[in-house]
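Structure ticket #2291
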Amino acid sequence: MQEHPAQITHDPLAAVRIAEYRFFIAGRFLFIMGLRMMGTLVGWWIYSLTNDPFSIGLIGLSEVIPAVSLALYAGHIIDRSEKRYMLLRGVFLYILCALALFLLSFDFMMAEFGTRLITVGIYTVIFFTGIVRAFTGPIFGAIIASIVPRSHLQNAITWSQGTWLGASVTGHALGGLLIAWLGIHNTLACIVFFIITSMVVMMGLKPKPANHANAEQRTWESVKEGLRFVYRTKEVLGALTLDLFAVLFGGAVAMVPVFARDILKIGAEGFGILNAAADLGSICIVILLTIFPMRKKQGKKLLLAVGGFGLCIICFALSKWFLLSFVLLLIAGMLDGISVVVRGTILQLRTPDHIRGRVMSVNSMFINSSNELGQFESGVAAKLMGVVPSVIFGGAMTLGVVIVSWFKAPTLRRFEY
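Resolution: structure written out below.
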């Protein structure tokens, strides 16, 4: 049941006054920062090895196949498991994947196996991170409600999204800078260190017992319950679908390595800065929304924000100046930040506790599909159309999705919390 708005606290520091929640967001910050550094590094590394924009798209495909394939089953397992243990185990497995990339980056490995096998090895490691992500990603969303009281949930969601975006900004920018200063091998060593540190911090979380309300429920029946909830809750379905198609077609960030090296000619340091621009914009808007939360017409603002995001992507594709490109991605990130906060709040406030794992896994399917399939779509479109026309096409398709949603999803357009 949706909580009455009067019960929701508007204290901007409500959630972070809880010690366990501080462990959660600190550990999540370090973890996401490490993963974003890894994503930045792998995109640059693969493009350096292959000189083919399509190869960047294959990174997303390598991760999204296992992540989406296992998502529904992962949600069933999360709801029946102790979440702290699952979270720490997932982080540990990410550490092993980062160590595998670190091993592949040794000079003697390149000399021994050559560019082609090293490239295959990178894709293989990313495939395994997709498996881990299917289980680990939804836990971060599902565990929040067991750390903070429901009256603090909206505030905790905003802080969590801000932490994620702040970590993305830091990870993208630091990843590019460290590649330029230290090289790929030493940057991977830093990534391993950050993920290990995140695991140590999150050990401060208390155990989160499994919800046994549906302990006897069969796997497929359990999965269907989560899917039925999303399908029947129209504002949730509308928000997830909008995000899926908007990000699927608006994935210009996947082509940033190409823009940085071949169009804007700004090198690895400029690449890191440009790669962080969208996330920097997002974190700015999330900070603003933490202090001054939206009080009405959130659904309409979500649609307008996604439409503005599409326009920024089109203009970015046409830009030939680094500063203009940076500003456009910064604004796109601000608009995307509005979308992230509204979507995340709708999802948390409308989801019952006993199916949070399954609903968050459905959410992760949409997110993984939009981000990683969007990266693949960008690679395919770049190969077929050329890089600039493909990004223009993606932005135009995002605008089309918003227009369709405006008329076909009135429940989402009128939604308020």
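Closing remark: The chain has one domain: 5-413.
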